[in-house]
Write a structure and sequence with these properties.
- The structure holds 2 protein chains of 2 kinds.
- By secondary structure, chain A is α/β, with parallel strands linked by helices.
- Chain A contains 10 helices and 14 strands.
- Chain A has 2 domains: 217 residues, Rossmann fold; 77 residues, Alpha-Beta Plaits (2-Layer Sandwich).
- Chain A has a 6-stranded mixed β-sheet with strand order 6-7-8-4-9-10, with helices on both faces. In chain A, strands 1, 2, 3 and 5 form a 4-stranded antiparallel β-sheet that branches.
- In chain A, helix 2 packs across helix 3 and helix 2 packs parallel to helix 4.
- The longest helix of chain A has 18 residues.
- The two termini of chain A are 36 Å apart.
- Chain B is mainly alpha-helical.
- Chain B has 12 helices and 2 strands, in the order H-H-H-E-H-H-H-H-E-H-H-H-H-H.
- In chain B, strands 1-2 form a two-stranded parallel sheet.
- Chain B is globular and about 65 Å long.
- At the A-B interface, helix 2 of A face helix 1, helix 5 and helix 6 of B.
Chain lengths: 303, 263
């Protein structure tokens, strides 16, 4: 499997605090990897290490299979938007683009105009950044990160502070970049609901640790409607369920069984368990929202 | 690194502050020239030309003296260096580009080199304006000893480079315009020299007419010793002092940038 970006126990320590604690992720080419975590979870620090802004205390990472220090030229192939876009407010949008381009040794005005068009800022090239709305600045920041024709884009909280319309615009832009330019995107947010609309793979970071990693399909499954049953003997209950032909189930905390199929057959399930001398201590049909799911796992991990 | 210098120069060209400070530098040159013309012409017969060493007509060498007398141009340059150096950090643009080079110190060096190009341009503008006004308005302007002029000009330029490196260091260390400007202005406005004079007094008390005083080894103290009449020994001492400050301030700035994270 070709991983475009891999981290191996990447760690950043500030004094006694592990801002990022042994995080290992694997990102395939073309994926949109969503890193989800509360404010202060370690997302920005993690991104900063990948962008070369911060030196890891321990661990390592590779881009295109190579450690970045061995191949500094590869850095050009990473576009970065960390926290807020770094823009010169008294200069025009196109001049900001030009400054970014010159730093990469590029001098192609036509391409810069094309990029501004792509992010929906066509016709606003000469407008000063201070006169742009927050959403426009965010899009300009993304356009600047695209100047070097990157293969990987690191977007740290790109929808932070945006109104609903702005969020939709950025989401559509990210989807378009992934599809049309085949850019691998790492995007962080504390809003799982938004990320769930675009990401293909997720990592949940909490207190600097990666506590879960799953695909989009797995996320949908975890958040889908299900029967939650608490039997007196979970091991025996699993056997009974399988005898009934139920295979899509999961045991949580060694006491609760989540069943993802035959959701209207809860009565039959209870009856079958009773026939096998298994008491049903509780039963409920649950449908968890994405945010609830996120809170349940980060809240559970909270020390 | 050339890409980064090119980028910095483009940024400098597009920044309003660059042009405002260039205009201020020209205004200072005009003001300094006006004061010097009063010294030379001495319209009130107060013997100003003799007191200030401006008797005997105007030549190229005295154009430098006009600027050495005051530190106003140095103040403009300190503001320019601090604003230019801090701009990328202030708006967060450094986060966009700092990862593109393996050696972060190269970005620091390229930024200082770019700042020095700006310093050179502002300096040339100010001296050019002063010299131009002298040629037009002074009754007896002559080129004078151009070799001595060139030598002194190089020393003055070395000092501007050393001062720029020190201002650059403060801005890089404190990561803010205020953090860079306060110590820079303390130096250029002469506040720090009050402290060094105090140290001189202490040294004189302790060692009874020592050969060297503490102020000789402070940058502004060495700068004050630069003059067309300075002895070779003094010139050597001030050149070495300026060069040491330049190398140490720049070296520390690059070291800091290389070692620390971008927050």
């Amino acid at each position: 499997m070709e991983y475009i970006l891999e981290t191996d126990n990447l760690t950043k320590r500030y004094g006694n605090i592990n801002a990022v604690d042994h995080v290992s992720i694997h990102v395939k080419r073309g994926e949109i990897y969503g890193l989800i975590g509360r404010n202060g979870a370690g997302k920005t620090t993690f991104f900063k290490m990948l962008a070369g802004l911060s030196k890891p205390t321990a661990g390592q990472f590779s881009i295109f299979g190579e450690p970045p220090e061995n191949t500094p030229k590869l850095r050009d192939r990473i576009g970065v938007l960390i926290e807020s876009p770094g823009l010169f407010y008294t200069m025009s949008a196109i001049n900001n683009m030009k400054i970014q381009a010159l730093s990469l040794g590029m001098n192609d005005d036509e391409y810069l105009h094309e990029l501004l068009n792509d992010v929906g800022l066509g016709g606003m090239e000469k407008m000063k950044v201070k006169k742009l709305s927050m959403g426009m600045r965010q899009r300009l920041g993304i356009a600047m990160s695209l100047v070097g024709r990157p293969d990987i884009l690191l977007l740290d909280e790109p929808i932070n502070g945006l109104d609903p319309q702005g969020i939709v615009e950025i989401r559509e832009l990210i989807e378009r970049l992934s599809k049309e330019r085949n850019i691998t995107i790492l995007i962080s947010s504390h809003i799982l609901e938004e990320l769930s609309k675009i990401a293909t793979r997720y990592g949940i970071i909490h207190n600097g640790q990666l506590i879960d990693e799953f695909t989009h399909q797995e996320l949908l499954k975890r958040c889908s409607e299900r029967i939650e049953i608490r039997p007196s003997d979970p091991t025996k209950a699993c056997t009974v369920l399988e005898q009934m032909g139920i295979t899509e189930y999961k045991v949580v905390d060694q006491s609760v069984i989540q069943i993802f199929e035959r959701l209207t057959d809860s009565g039959d399930i209870v009856l079958e368990l009773a026939k096998n001398n298994i008491k049903t201590l509780s039963i409920a049909v649950k449908n968890e929202a994405l945010e609830d799911y996120f809170l349940s796992i980060t809240g559970g991990a909270k020390k | 690194m050339l890409n980064l210098i090119q980028m910095n120069l483009y940024r400098m060209k597009k920044a309003v502050s660059t042009w405002v400070l260039a205009i201020v530098a020209v205004a200072i040159a005009v003001l300094d020239f006006s004061i010097m013309k009063i010294y030379v012409d001495d319209p009130f017969g107060w013997g100003l030309a003799e007191i200030t060493g401006m008797e005997g007509g105007m030549d190229m060498m005295k154009t430098i003296t006009g600027f050495l007398r005051g530190t106003d141009l140095l103040i403009v340059l300190s503001i320019f260096v601090v604003i230019f150096t801090n701009a990328e950090q202030k708006c967060g643009f450094d986060k966009n580009i700092i990862g593109i080079t393996k050696h972060k110190w190269k970005q620091t060096l390229s930024r200082w080199l770019s700042a020095m190009i700006g310093v050179t341009a502002i300096m040339a503008l100010a001296y050019g304006t002063f010299t131009g006004l002298s040629v037009i308005f002074m009754n007896s302007f002559s080129a004078g000893d151009m070799v001595a002029y060139g030598k002194l000009m190089l020393i003055v330029y070395l000092f501007y480079a050393a001062f720029s490196a020190v201002f650059f260091f403060f801005t890089t260390a404190f990561k803010s315009s205020a953090g860079g400007l306060v110590p820079s202005l303390l130096i250029t406005t002469g506040v720090l020299s009050l402290i060094t004079k105090l140290l001189d007094l202490g040294a004189e008390r302790l060692f009874h007419n020592p050969k060297y005083l503490p102020s000789d080894f402070f940058l502004e103290g060495a700068y004050a010793a630069v003059s067309p009449d300075a002895s070779n020994g003094t010139i050597l001492r001030v050149v070495v002092t300026a060069a040491v400050y330049l190398v140490v301030a720049l070296g520390l700035s690059m070291f800091m940038q290389q070692k620390r994270d971008v927050r």
